[in-house]
Structure prediction request, 353 residues.
Amino acid sequence: MSPIDEAIRKMTILLVEDDEDTRALVEAQFSHRGFTGLSSAASGAEATELLRQGKVDLVLLDLLLPDVDGMEFLDKLVNEYGLPVVVTTCRDDKRTQMHCLEFGAADYLIKPFDADILILKVEKILATIHLQERLESSRRRNQRLFLNILQVMAKTLEAKDPYTKYHSENVARYARMIGRKMGLEEKEIELLQIAGILHDFGKIGIKESLLNKPGALEPDEYEIIKRHPMVASAILEPLEELEAVIAFIRHHHEFYNGQGYPAGLAADDIPLGARILMVADAFDAMRSKRSYREPRTREEAMQELKSCAGSQFDPEVVEAFLDALATEEQRFVRDRERRAAEAGEAEDAGGDS
Prediction:
């Protein structure tokens, strides 16, 4: 038996059939062929309960069930659960068969059916699912490897510019803070984290002399710098799962008033993740020492965000970030006071001894 044959015989199949004799026949035939993951239900309710309990790879569905409409249940299995379904029914008419296939059935068998043909159809469907899962798993591994390589290269980029050391980590941290304060879901916050790490990745091809140039850039030099969001987008394009991240990075220099780059988007036309990155990036840039200026204080940087809210920055994002910074500051003060109190108690205990 090939590895694929072994794998598909361990996959989970749900037989939904109200006729006891048919259930017994199908269970016996599948067991004889070495399938170990077959379970059965006599009604739609039983099938729904089994679906809640664990993973199912394929459903064998009798259309005539005692408690549910077979076509409606087929639609639910295909469109809500995303499962391949082989319909088994005594309805020997083309109209029913066409409706089942239109509803998304993977195949259609008329009772009484040949068990060998049923198993052959099931094997083909499961083999396809297994191969698709292997390909998807391989693609995810390759994407994770590619992302790890990009993160290493982003670190290399920071090494080219000593003035931006830890910049990407700081931007990622600030972006997470904003995302949480704005009530974003954890998955969205994870995307912000990735975007923060990679937001300046497009600068990888820019000369160090330009990145570290003291003083103002010439117009043509500024145009070179402005290309970095699009360069990063092009490099990241193979990462299909990071489509949102790519959009965040591409547009993280768009101004809320439409005066930014590369597309001149404004307000809500700018992806929220890009608006968040813009604030996080700008704040850390102001707080960092650059070749042409000293860093601004925390208060000065916060005031600049307030001053530019509505023009450069999304006012809601600025408000969320300032609230997050205030919360962080309060936590820092509480922790410092707690540590001081603990140190005082330890000194008192030492004196008493």
